Amino acid sequence: MNVTGTVYLVGAGPGAPDLLTLRAAELLRRADIVFYDALVHPDTIALADKAEKIAVGKRCGRHSTAQRFINKRLVDAAQKHAVVVRLKGGDPMLFGRAQEEIDEIEQHGINYQIVPGITAALAASASVGVSMTRRGLSRNVTFLTPRRGAGEKGHDWAHSALAADTCAIYMGVGEATQIADTLISRGASPDLPAVIVESATLHTERHITVRLADLGTAAAQTITGPAVILLGEVYAQVQPSEAVVEPVARSRIA
Ligand code: SAH
């Protein structure tokens, strides 16, 4: 086998193109081929001006055959190109299926490097202006998703959420009602402060502050973009962003 290339798994950050690392920008400039996810900003992809650019991945629910196909394409690309960039939203190592790609690349003896990016939960924290580890209220943070891939074993995500001082839930808005019901039935306070941060760092960004009990209603009525749910006492004082005009959120906050 004539393997020449290196595969770079690169974090594109949460949305805004200027939240990219210098290393990521340089690799994009050098890239011969870029495989990018749906949530990556077009201006970020455009930095790869000499590369062949290939969209892979859906907004949600990418299934395993598609993932296997991506893995294979990375290997094939590394056999033809020197600089192969796999560009992922946020940080590649969090909820990005990076490990499957790394395993496949390793199995083929191909060199690879990971370039970290700003993950959605940390961008969301910056947006709401609240420390996830506010002194006196929180000494730990849990990143979790209730989402389970096809064939994956179940996991007790609620246990992790209940044990955390502060919790960031990825890929959860679509099932926000079940999340809230489950947590409350397992002992969480219905008044636990929650913030839904949508499209963090993009011009469409907004956040909605609710009690846990109202999370499902708020998510169903207002959220269309990618969103992360933040839970914890640290969010007790967060004001909703001005962009939120719908009456449901207002009546709940009052
Ligand atoms: N690797 C990514 C996460 C991929 S999973 C990272 O580190 O951020 C995709 C989920 O990330 C979405 O369902 C949503 O929960 C969250 N997400 C991605 N971009 C976001 C954004 N700009 N604002 C809020 N949440 C976002």
Specify the CATH homologous superfamily of the largest domain: Tetrapyrrole methylase, C-terminal domain
Approximately how much helix is present in the residues?
A: 25-40%
| N- and C-termini, Cα separation | 66 Å
Please, how many helices? 9
Runs in which pLDDT lies below 50 for 5 or more consecutive residues are 242-254
Bound molecules: S-adenosyl-L-homocysteine
The CATH class of the largest domain is identified as: Alpha Beta
Number of domains: 2
The helix/strand series, from N terminus to C terminus, equals: EHEHEHEHEHEHEHEEHEH
Going by CATH, the architecture of the largest domain would be: 2-Layer Sandwich
**Mean pLDDT level:** 90
List strands and helices in order, with pairings.
Blueprint: E1 6-11, H1 22-30, E2 33-36, H2 42-46, E3 52-55, H3 64-78, E4 83-88, H4 98-107, E5 111-115, H5 120-128, E6 141-144, H6 157-163, E7 166-169, H7 176-185, E8 193-198, E9 206-211, H8 215-222, E10 227-232, H9 247-253
Parallel strand pairs: 1-4, 1-5, 2-3, 2-4, 6-7
Antiparallel strand pairs: 7-10, 8-9, 8-10
Bound molecules: S-adenosyl-L-homocysteine (SAH).
S-adenosyl-L-homocysteine (SAH) binds at residues 14-15, 39, 88-91, 94-96, 119-120, 124, 170-171, 197, 199-201, 226-228.
What report would you give on this structure?
By secondary structure, this protein is an alpha/beta fold. The protein folds into 2 domains: 6-115, 3-Layer(aba) Sandwich (Cobalt-precorrin-4 Transmethylase, domain 1); 120-237, Methyltransferase, Cobalt-precorrin-4 Transmethylase, Domain 2, CATH 3.30.950. The chain has helices at residues 22-30, 42-46, 64-78, 98-107, 120-128, 157-163, 176-185, 215-222, 247-253; strands at 6-11, 33-36, 52-55, 83-88, 111-115, 141-144, 166-169, 193-198, 206-211, 227-232. The strands form 2 sheets. A 5-stranded parallel sheet has the order 3-2-4-1-5, with helices on both faces. It has a 5-stranded mixed sheet with strand order 6-7-10-8-9, with helices on both faces. Strand 2 (33-36), helix 2 and strand 3 (52-55) form a beta-alpha-beta unit. Helix 3 (64-78) crosses helix 4 (98-107). The longest helix has 15 residues, at 64-78. The chain is elongated. The N and C termini lie far apart (66 Å). Residues 242-254 have low confidence and may be disordered. S-adenosyl-L-homocysteine (SAH) binds at residues 14-15, 39, 88-91, 94-96, 119-120, 124, 170-171, 197, 199-201, 226-228.
